[in-house]
Design brief:
By secondary structure, the chain is mainly alpha-helical. Helices cover 89% and strands 0% of the residues.
C-alpha cells in the first residue's frame, strides 16, 4: 500500500511534464501549419513569387518566435 502512495506524486510530475511538452509541440505545429496555409493561399491567388514571399515572411516570423522563446532579445 505504501508503494502505491509514493508513486502518485512521481506520476503526476511526469504527466504534467508530458502535457507541457505536448503543448509546446502542438503550438509549434500550429504555427507551421498556419505558414503553410498562408503560403498556399498566396501562391493560388497571386502566383509563384507571392508564394515564395509569403514563405519567406513565415520563416522569418517563425525564426523570431523561436529566438524569443529561447531568451533572445532580453536586455
Amino acid at each position: 500500500m505504501d508503494e502505491k502512495k509514493s508513486i502518485w506524486p512521481v506520476l503526476v510530475q511526469v504527466i504534467r511534464a508530458t502535457v507541457g511538452y505536448l503543448g509546446l509541440y502542438l503550438d509549434d505545429l500550429l504555427l507551421i501549419a498556419a505558414g503553410a496555409c498562408l503560403t498556399a493561399a498566396a501562391y493560388e491567388q497571386y502566383g509563384r513569387p507571392a508564394g515564395f514571399a509569403a514563405a519567406g515572411v513565415c520563416l522569418a516570423g517563425y525564426a523570431f518566435v523561436v529566438a524569443r522563446s529561447r531568451g533572445g532579445g532580453k536586455r
